[in-house]
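Appendix B, Record 12. Input sequence as logged:
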Amino acid sequence: MIKVASLVNLLGYVIGGIGGIIYFKLFPCETGCAIRSNIFFNILMGALIGDLVFQLVKKFIIQKN
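Logged structural output:
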């Protein structure tokens, strides 16, 4: 059975990855920028940032209870 913590991580990765795709589509790279030029890098960075945010929110909720 999947633990709740694993679901929180997975949800953070998925939402962050979707955010990376949206960022890539809304702010395209018009010059030779290395970070925003590849959609896969944007998805990876979005997933990592999404997981980080979800981990912080999870810790804040646990501490509050």
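The longest helix spans residues 39-64.
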